[in-house]
Amino acid sequence: MRRFFAIILFILCAVSPVSAEEIAVAAASDLNFAIKEVIGEFEKQTGHRVKLSLGSSGNFYAQLQQGAPFDLYFSADIGYPKKLEEAGLTVPGSLYRYAVGRVVLWAPKTSSLDLAKGLTVLREPTIKKIAIANPKHAPYGRAAVAAMEHAQVYADVKDRLVLGENISQAAQFIESGACDVGIIALSLALAPAMKSAGSYWEIPAEAHPPLEQGAAILKQSKHQELARNFLSFLQGSQGQEIMIRYGFTLPK
Question: Taxonomically, which superkingdom (predicted)?
Answer without folding.
Answer: Bacteria
